[in-house]
Amino acid sequence: MISRFLERIGCVVRESIASLGFATRAFFNLVGVSPGALRRPALISEQIHFIGNYSLVIIAVSGLFVGMVLGLQGYYTLNQYGAEQKLGQVVALALVRELGPVVTALLFAGRAGTSLTAQIGLMKAGEQLSAMEMMAINPVQRVLAPRFWAGVIAMPVLASVFSAVGVLGGYLVGVQLIGVDEGAFWSQMQAGVDVRADVLNGVIKSVIFGIAVTFTALFQGYQAQPTPEDVSRATTRTVVIASLMVWGLDFVMTALMFNK
Amino acid sequence: MGGSGCGKTTVLRLIGGQLRPQRGEVRVAGEVVHRLDTDGLYRLRRRMGMLFQFGALFTDLSVFDNVAFPLREHTDLPEELIRDLVLMKLNAVGLRNAHRLKPAEISGGMARRVAVARAVALDPELIMYDEPFAGLDPISMGVTANLIRNLNDALGSTSILVSHDVHECFAIADYVYFMSAGKIVAEGTPAELRVSEDPYVKQFVNAAPDGPVPFHYPGKSLAEDLGLGGRK
């Protein structure tokens, strides 16, 4: 009984390590063939349009509402200490440091990540990737690498849009609706948000999230069995794994970046 | 030729280097396929063309772009020349006027013909066809069979065709191998095989339900299953 239990644990641990090693090798393989893909910027821009532009509406609308909620909640709390002038700073810091990169990455995983997984999985199921291989064209370089770099480029841009629209949402609620002083809102934001410590770190976070989410989506699609059931399971795995990675990476990066 | 699951497609995948053999070796143009590195394998594959069972067209590209795909990837030809070459290839399969359509807008038979045009876009020395007649109506089947034969003669290439359609294959093939359970069980020209006394060939050619390939999945007998004391 105990030996069986230990066997099962050993099996799970061994499989997990093997999967991690396999994913790591796939990642370096993807990075290794990237110079070839980067020499063809048209392929990458086409994918930026596909995965970036199509995510824009959901990102902008979510950013607006998150900013509005931050404006409301921030005002209720700050008002208790007579510090509602700080609302602009609170909203901006929350967005550029945390909510912008994190929520964008989660939305990106749900919107573009699942779409990428399904696309690659269906290409595999339709033997399109095998056909490409038989044409002496490396599908990792031709199909996966442009999508990967498009995701890495699109993510910080989308996170910036999220944060910018979120600040606008906070302004609409805080200044236009509640009546916080407009000058204080913007000047406190300007004084309290550091380009390097806050904005740049937020951008770095979103680039890392872009790498993690896009690679997860592509890897899951590429590894999916060519059946409708497994492709649908792969899209679910993309959302689950990418979301957990975003939370885990966010904690580690926050601990490293904002530890002063 | 051979029944479903006998290993026909596996042979094609071994020749194309998509599978590695556990034993033995496959030689193409004097080179052992599974010993080649990635660059060597890709160099060899440029001399091959392959038609997949359901065409494997790129669904996000038009018919024209599907055929142009290998030309754009492997050559630096100007776009005007690529256009002319693609239209010539599509003309050969009778679909020049369908070049603007997407794969979703054409029938299965037409998709197969587009895939043939794409497979021969770079004028390969070896063309492999994986079940090119599967799921086609009789007219499309005849058109595809003639097309394969005519293209083969025009290009002067070698074609390996995997199928279980006796009539079409015997009409266009020069030499036929029969496979069963991963082994070659009979071979010969279509004329020789038509009069063959080999039980497997006879069962296959005459589409007999029982014979060397049993109708029943191997296992317990019906009597045993019903508890009547019978033997296997």
Shape of chain B: globular
Taken in chain order, the helices and strands of chain A follow as HHHHHHHHHH
Shape of chain A: globular
Task: Give the helix proportion of chain A (percent range).
Answer: over 70%
State the assembly state of the protein chains.
heterodimer
Using the CA coordinates, give the radius of gyration of chain B.
21 Å
Describe it.
The complex is a heterodimer of chains A (260) and B (232). Chain A has one domain. Chain A has helices at 2-32, 34-38, 41-52, 56-80, 87-125, 128-134, 139-178, 182-192, 195-223, 228-257. With 260 residues, chain A is mostly helical. Chain B has a single domain (8-196), classed as 3-Layer(aba) Sandwich (Rossmann fold), CATH 3.40.50. Chain B has helices at 8-16, 38-45, 63-74, 79-92, 108-119, 138-155, 166-172, 190-194, 199-205, 222-225; strands at residues 27-28, 31-32, 48-51, 126-130, 158-162, 176-180, 183-188. A three-stranded parallel sheet of chain B has the order 3-4-5. A two-stranded antiparallel ribbon of chain B has the order 1-2. In chain B, a hairpin with a 2-residue loop joins strand 6 and strand 7 (183-188). The longest helix of chain B has 18 residues, at 138-155. Classes of the chains: A mainly alpha (260), B alpha/beta (232). At the A-B interface, helix 6 of A face helix 2, strand 3 and helix 3 of B.
